[in-house]
Amino acid sequence: MVVKKAKAPPAPVIETVAPKTLDEAIAAVMARVPYVKKTGRVKVGAGYTYAGDVDLIRALRPAMLECGVLMVPRRVTLLFHEQYPSQGGQVWNRVCIKVRYRVSHVASGEKDFIEVGGEGADMGDKAMNKAMTGAHKYALRQLFNIETGDADPDETPSSEQARSTQAQGGFTKPVPAANGTPEKKEEQQQKERPPLSVEASYELAKQAISQAVTDQQLDSYTEAFRRRQYSSQQILELERQVDERRKSLTKEKAKN
Questions:
Q1: Where are the CATH 3.30.390.80 domain residues in the chain?
Q2: Is the pLDDT of residue 20 over 60?
Q3: Which tens digits make up the pLDDT trace of 58-69?
Q4: In this structure, what are the phi and psi dihedrals at residue 41, rounded to the nearest 5 degrees?
Q5: What residues have CB less than 8 Å from 64, skipping those under 6 apart?
Q6: Mapping DSSP to helix (H, G, I), strand (E, B) and coil, where does residue 91 land?
Q7: What is the value of pTM for the model shown?
Q8: Residue 120: pLDDT above 80?
Q9: Nearest residue to 146 via CA among 227, 55, 18
């Protein structure tokens, strides 16, 4: 006697309902991409992994296209740009921006806007690129509540995150990094170089004043160069440039 095996019941068919609103589309993307695996790795020191901009785009792009969600930058606002010397005498560029993104749903035509900050520092011309990449990464993470397993900034004491408040010619110096990090290696490689001269610091201070975009920046520069060993003539010239820059900023605000 041959016993026939009972056939397994067919798997239930789950109908996929197309999102009808922007909120429904965002929720659908969140359901499809709850987590993004970290593939980036820093091998310096103890090393760590991280989820980068490429990881988020690779995971989210198919779901966003399927659900008809678009996110495009519409306005980039430069909050400030500063230059500061490292202990080795190299000049770093630091940029902080605010990016306004338009988030829209193709099918319904609904749209909304989100604003995200971004910051980047580089010895060359990549500071703005890094700031844009950071803003894009965190806009995606926050819009779709993506979990990556990255460390929470609140877990790190503020004293470890703060930049040094000491200044040279109106520029704040970066916080000395832990042993083994690229910043520490750069400092070690440059430690035999002579410190930044007063004249070099004076020229950097003048450049910083000309690029200041807020009164707060000018206040911090004024306080910093007064602590520097400039001549009285140099201090008077820097104060004159600060006053001129304040007037220029006031005129720019009046036009806007």
A1: 19-150
A2: yes
A3: 999 999 999 999
A4: -145, 135
A5: 29, 70, 71
A6: strand
A7: 0.54
A8: yes
A9: 55
DSSP 130-162: HHHHHHHHHHHHHHHT-B--PPPGGGS-HHHHP
How many other C-beta atoms can be found within 10 angstroms of the C-beta atom of residue 214? 11
Q: Give per-residue burial for 154-193: e unless 16+ CB within 10 Å, then b.
A: eeeeeeeeeeeeebbbbbbbbeeeeeeeebeebbeeeeee
Q: How many CB atoms neighbour CB 108 within 10 A? A: 15
In the block, tokens 């397993």 appear at: 149
* Residue 130 identity: K
Copy the structure tokens of residue 129. Answer: 């690129």
Helix ranges, the chain (H): 22-32, 53-67, 127-144, 158-161, 182-190, 198-211, 215-227, 232-255
What residues form DSSP beta bridges with 100? Answer: 75, 115
Please determine, for residue 187, whether its predicted confidence score (pLDDT) is greater than 70: no
**pLDDT (average), residues 63-90:** 88
In the predicted structure, residue 21 carries a pLDDT above the cut 50: yes
Domain 19-150 has CATH 3.30.390.80: yes
Q: 10 Å Cβ neighbour count for 140? A: 23
* Residue where the block lists tokens 């975009």: 213
